[in-house]
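Human: Can I borrow your eye for a moment on a structure tokenisation matter? Separate attempts, laid side by side, tell us more than any discussion would. Could you pick a protein and write out its sequence and tokenised fold? No explanation is needed for now; the record alone will do.

Assistant:
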Amino acid sequence: MTPDERFLKQPKSFWAHVRTLGQHLGYTVRNTEQIKVPTIREMRGALVELGLNANSVGTDPQPSDLGASLRAYFQHRATVLETFIQPRLMDAPDAKLLFERIQAERGPAACPLPMNKQKGDKKAPAFLTGLVNMLIEQNADGMNCNYDPRELTTITHEGAPLRTLARRVDGAFPSAVNPVAVWEIKEYYYTTTGGSRVADGVYETLLDGMELEELRQETGIEVKHYLIVDSKYTWWVCGRSYLCRILDMLHMGYVDEVLFGREVVDRLPSLVQQWVQIARARAQAPLAEPSLNPDAR
């Protein structure tokens, strides 16, 4: 899923309102699976209760430009979550069927197909990771991919480290040094509650996105950044508020795309083909590594 262009250029103050209102009003309608879309009156009431300036959103008959934009964003977020994302999320049985179908269609894979970290009856292939790896291998046109970087992502200039990310990512194409793309995979098929593990997954991706934003703004070097998530029970039943935050992060520009569940089968092949084109164009340049853009400093 890509962001809606209307909300990509919003200032930081817009997102401060989104977070503040989400914290105070909640992200869902209580006792339902409905995503909350606050009215201007509710936004004003929340800001007043928090001792903040409610005039920033205007009034119910006459919302400010900010208030109208907030209302439009909340409506967009709810519609996308309820009609696009929720139907694409899978739980373990559906993910297993899709994994086995793709595996049968493409034959033996040279890419890793890791097992999950569960024990006993729940021990099984990591279905989403396996799907991602097979689809990348199938569409990479023979190019290398680091499916499990055990090193920090590093961007170099003239052979020296220019930026090194704080965390290890789940995958990098074609390598963890000067990658075209990096991604995080969050599959929680056997998690019984939302909890801190899900929250950590969101905040880890946010940290990566903030570091990559700084890299892009200060050097002009772009690294594509993706988040790939699944588990209908964990993300939808228990964690709709975190799905809202993921949509916020997407529109803040901290991640280029988020792929939800079975969406990987439809979207990932074309993305990988784009990565291949970028990597090959870069390899044909005078330097096989990114060069600084002085205009971005």
